[in-house]
Amino acid sequence: xxxxxxxIYTGGTIGMIEDPVSKALMPFDFSHLxxxxxxxxxxxxxxDNIQFTPPLDSSDMYPEHxxxxxxxxxxxxxxxxxxxxxxxxxxxxYTASALSFMLQNLAxxxxxxxxxxxxxxxxxxxxxxxxxALQIAAAKGxxxxxxxxxxxxxxxxxxxxxxRSTKRSADHFNAFKSNNYPYLAKIxxxxxxxxxALARNPGKPLKAxxxxxxxxxxxxxxxxxxxxxxxxLVNTPGIKGIVLRTYGAGNxxxxxxxxxxxxxxxxxxxxxxxxxxxxxxxxxxxxxxTGDRLAATGVISGHDITFEAAxxxxxxxxxxxxxxxxxxxxxxxxxAGEMTVQ
Length: 342
Ligand code: ASP
Hints:
alpha/beta, binds aspartic acid, Rossmann fold, 9 helices
């Protein structure tokens, strides 16, 4: 049986062409993209597509676009073996995280890819990324089940868990990395899957929930952050949740005003989620006094979660109509393999 794959083309560099006047890259349609990859026909797959109109540079992605992608997958879930999402690299890790939270109990592959150079360019990485993504979306294990049963990012030599990924380079072809989780597959002459790292479906049917509540914000601590600025930020009208990006193992200033502002925010019912600014490693709030003081204010540890997963998870949970305590509880446990709780 021919594998059946649905491609959702959202835009991004992979499908872009040069504006003849300004020479800037702008998104172009799906037919342009496929015309530049005649090799796709050699795969002998049944491929259908859904196209964003107009295709987007991913800097223009909003939660409604994530919902559009997730609906495309959920509505067609039973009709395809796998899904490939073509997407710009700039916000790919946010979309991957958002899809992981929206599509619970996934049992089929959702492979997101794009490229650093447009598909029409001689040295493009887009052709290889597209072909490999299609092959992974069609791959079955020895038991006949899909090899990948989660949202993943395929870029150049690696397949990464979507909600663990971060864009790490604006120039290199290996543009993505998961700094706290091993790769799901290594792409070389063949595709070598890391069986132990791959998620396995719990046997439950797909549960899709498309909500996002954008009443969230991020605060980055830095030496010099003033009381006035912090006070202003934590009192932003309408905010329900803050991702607090802290130093090292989840440490922050111990100044009285800092601790008081964060404690007051927690007492007002704002969820404050402690995520490290380090690219690798985890929050351990009780390792240093500086983290311990912060923990005592009521902030929740983000363990080794990425910023992209933290903010999308928060937006998603706030949309579910559950109470503050339940949001706080769910923030501290992994929902889609997005963090390791030690
Ligand atoms: N600005 C582009 C985008 O994210 C970059 C890319 O696709 O690589 O849509």
